Amino acid sequence: MAQKLLVVRNDKIGDFMLAWPALACLKQASPMPHVTVLVPAYTAPLAKACPWVDDVIIDPGSQADKATQQALLFHVKQSKFDALLTLFSTPRIGWLGMKAGIPLRVAPATKWAQVFYNVRIRQRRSHSAKPEYQYNVDLACELLARLSLTLTTLPSPPFWPMDGAQRLVQRQTLANDTSERVVVVHPGSGGSAVNLSVAQYAELIAHVHRQCQPLPLRWLISAGPSEQPQAQDLRKQLAEKGVEADHFPATPSVDAFALQLGGADMLIAGSTGPLHIAGCLDIATAGFYPAKRSATPLRWQTCNRAEKRLAFSPPADADQQDMTTIDLGNAAERISALLVGSAGTHPEIGVLGESGMCGEQRQQ
Description:
Rossmann fold; 6-stranded parallel beta sheet; 2 domains; elongated; disordered C terminus
């Protein structure tokens, strides 16, 4: 019988997308385990679409009433999981795993929540020494080792595989003709990260549009429900610069948005959920990040192939969160080069490490 694993990443969409490489590691191990994820309702559609997930449990959150929390505990206990892997540790989830009687409980060795786990891995994520998805993969590898499951080769992008026919269908919805490069720009941040201003995005897009000529570009502006004014303002500023941009097609759900995004050539955004969805889809990304240690381009790197990934942040001598100091001219040149094909000609390579195998971890 397959071992039953419960994996928890119950915060923002971008954080959950950076768990997909770890989920792929678990699901590609031998013998293949049964993987369930505990996620909030707003990331559940993405979890259900994830090819590395067998089942989804909705986390009602810390604000839910006692009866709802007890129902969650009952569900988890009845599921008889062999192991719990918490990618972001909180006391509530640690207590849940212990009270549910899950015998193996793995989590980062951070804060006092670690007392609920019997395998604690020191990672020091705040040092930002490696990408967030690699920290997650390290934890997954530790869990596999504890369960005597074998993973001979680390999976590589795309972590959200989409076949050519499906991408073509999505592309036909986005592009006016086959010669266009479809570039999606997401100027909002969802309040989760410092981002460029609308005026900066307009300047950047205008630079790229000019530099890519005569290559036709199809500019689409995406926005969440609360970000529509920003999207409209960006379209207006672009029109004043002689650049036509349309709204990204409306979609009924976040997973539908993600599938539609699979038809694009590139996404330009701050460190947001859409940027990390694009990374899992292995489309090209251009991300704009602050320079503070806990939010560096390395820490929040997208998990697409290295040759499809661009990252920009303030220079070392500027304020960490002063996005006005980013050289938009340089960014436009690099984005343009990637779009016209002078970059992105490298062979298919993985991004999760040089050895191709799970690295050793240190138990605390």
